[in-house]
Design goal:
The protein has about 400 residues and is of the alpha/beta class. About 40% of the residues lie in helices and about 15% in strands. The chain contains 14 helices and twelve strands. Bound molecules: pyridoxal-5'-phosphate.
């Protein structure tokens, strides 16, 4: 026996009359309660307090509260990824025999979940063109329980008829879930537009630095919230406290980053449209966008931070373009602080046949740009040089 204090017991946290300005990170998996009465009351929800991190932890709560504020939501839930959020909504709320109707250009993994996994579990799914409310009306079945939409589609930036589809969902008593990742709460407010449920991949521009993978979901109805929460906790969709801390830190500058990226995107779109070798540019607030009028009424001046464009010369020119722009990350994500470039035909849409891609307007020369907060002159110059290189060599 020694009289050295045991290493095993926790050393008390130092006292301080002052509080830290920064949010602490709390990685503890478990929380000690004073007695069974208190623990019982915590589980009953009559006394606040955490118990076990899978059920909830302070960094997730702080982050959820911040996104709640942006979306006008109550008691939103942060999950381990955007796909966890999509999955928790679909599997937490739907039952065998239900039908779910989705937009035909949803995020790739959301489409896969609808096409491959839900039918395996006895939940029927189908998709329709969300720019056409009549197509949605025609696709509704007696057992349709939910509609899943994105406001602006990836990567062709088509603008959904949210007004028409929300009215349809309301009269037919169908839940409307909106994945607001692309538009962000600064560009669009789904709850004000009639959504019952809002989903985010926080991984993208909300966190904004490509170093945290997280999702968020909120619902108007408390019963729906509880069903989603219980499913997510049971299936272990827990977010990492460190990722939540990073995302919260990122959110402090979200408004500034979004506004700058959007301003850049609008200017870059106009610049690209004037360059030789560029066949077309897609940006919702441009007059030549196929949904320009709807974009104007739904999004106002908020065209967002995503731009797509198509160059002449197919895959060979596409290869030359990315090689000629090594400082613009050719990386399949969006919402980073810096500009990233994606090529759907070789990544998100490689699983589709060439004909199916052609139908969506996604050729081998099609690129999607997630515009960052760089100085706009630099961005325009880099794209101009890279596109010129892609075309000069094509002509040889
Ligand atoms: C990225 C993304 C998702 C999935 O989010 P993860 O955090 O990557 O799981 C879902 N929906 C949209 C629109 C996305 O862009």
């Amino acid at each position: 026996m020694t009289d050295r204090p045991t290493l095993v017991r926790r050393t008390p946290w130092p006292e301080s009359a002052s509080r830290p300005l920064g949010t602490p990170i709390q990685p503890s998996v478990v929380y000690a309660s004073p007695d069974p009465d208190t623990l019982d009351a915590q589980y009953a929800g009559t006394v606040p307090g955490y118990t076990y991190a899978r059920e909830g932890h302070p960094n997730a709560s702080v982050l959820a509260t911040k996104i709640d504020g942006l979306e006008g939501a109550t008691d939103g839930l942060v999950l381990g990824s955007g796909m966890a959020a999509v999955t928790a909504v679909l599997l937490g709320l739907l039952q065998q025999g239900d039908h779910v109707l989705g937009g035909d250009q949803l995020y790739g993994r959301s489409l896969r979940l609808m096409r491959e996994d839900l039918p395996r579990l006895g939940i029927a799914t189908s998709v329709a063109d969300p720019t056409d409310a009549a197509a949605f009306a025609a696709a509704i079945r007696p057992e349709t329980r939910m509609i899943l939409l994105e406001v602006v589609s990836n990567p062709t930036l088509r603008v959904a008829d949210i007004e028409g589809i929300a009215a349809l969902a309301k009269t037919r008593g169908i839940l409307l879930a909106i994945d607001n990742t692309f538009t962000t709460p600064r560009g669009f407010q789904p709850f004000a537009a009639g959504a019952d449920i809002v989903i985010h991949s926080v991984t993208k521009i909300l966190a904004g630095h490509s170093d945290a993978t997280l999702g968020y979901v909120a619902a108007v109805d408390a019963g729906l919230r509880k069903a989603i929460y219980d499913f997510a906790v049971t299936t272990g969709m827990t977010p990492s406290p460190f990722d939540c801390w990073l995302a919260e830190r990122g959110l402090y500058s979200f408004d500034l980053r979004y506004d700058r990226a959007e301003e850049n995107a609008s200017k870059l779109a106009d610049h690209l449209a004037g360059l030789p070798g560029v066949k077309r540019v897609l940006y919702p607030t441009r007059h030549d966008h196929p949904d320009h009028n709807r974009a104007k009424s739904l999004l106002g001046a908020r065209g967002g931070h995503m731009v797509s464009f198509e160059i002449e010369g197919g895959r060979a020119a596409a290869n030359r373009l990315t090689r000629a722009a090594p400082d613009i990350a050719f990386a399949p994500t969006l919402g980073d602080i810096g500009t990233t470039l994606s090529h759907p035909a070789s990544s998100s849409h490689r699983g589709l046949s060439a004909e199916a891609r052609a139908e969506l307007g996604i050729s081998e020369g099609f690129f999607r740009v997630s515009v960052g907060v760089e100085e706009i002159g630099l961005l325009c110059a880099e794209f101009e040089a890279a596109i010129a290189t892609s075309q000069i060599e094509a002509a040889r």
